[in-house]
Amino acid sequence: MNFSRRQFLRTSATMSALSAVSAVGGLSLTGTARAADAITVQYGGSAWLGHYPAYLAMKSGAFAAAGINQQWQSFGTSSARMSAVLSGGIDIACTGIVSALALMARGSKHFSIVAIPDSFSRVEGLLVRDSVRSIQDLKGKKVGVTFASSSHLLVLDLLGSAGLSNDVTLLNVPAPELPGAIQSGQIDAAAVWAPQFNRIRAMSGMKLLADDTQFSLHKKYGVTPGPDVLIVRNAWAEKNVDTVRKYLSVYFEASQMLRTKPEEAARSLIALTGMSALDQIEAIKDAEWYTLEQQTQLLKSPGNYVDGLQRLAEMLVTYKQIDKAPAVRQWVNTSYL
Prior knowledge:
It is found in: Periplasm. This protein is an alpha/beta fold.
């Protein structure tokens, strides 16, 4: 989603963290590693759900047990996160692909897409007041959305399909400010992702009009307006191939916990997201968590999902979000799987 994805929490990754494994679901671990021998990985995160696997693997001690000392850095936007990747400050990150596509369009070869963590098609959407029954009812109204985000692209796609591109006022509102803008009456509707999505949806008089499953590319390719991608900084990854492979193995063990033990995972994640326990469990269950085994199929080129990412790049050109569509497959690297 977005050039974004939300807040910060740092924890240490030492051997003492191993005692916490059972408390958060007992991720499968093999072997141990002394903290002094651990390889440090700088990770770019936030409270967005795309970062849940990395956060859980860190909090549980699973990374530490695998000899990985993950250092968590928080970024308010995906564009800021990608800037840190380019400058060498971040080694691995989950990011909304829109910011990555913008850099691809400029020819940057600093990073590669190595995995697709999730599909969040039901935790991002267009939320409206109860009086709005259809997209057509938004004519003449104000919609708040963070510009240059996945939610922005969703709104443009929905309005374009309904023939309302010039009949609705879009206001650029940072995601954290959208709940307040709805409550104060500054806007009539809001397009946003979790956790703000959950907060607005829970407000009296608000309802969901459309989520990412109504996005035109999702129907054919299973691609959301700004799917999460796990990227690595090439200069670092090429020197640490075994670490990247080990990282991905542990990372997707954490994803398995999100699929099979959402209640236990939620107990750790609420410290990151600030959600209530019920909202946190709902957010986990509403997302689809891909497995390590699914990655080769998802990232196959030619293949349906990568083709969808290419169509997404072309759509961004149509809506003047980027200047040209890069050949996305050139940034996909499955050698670490």
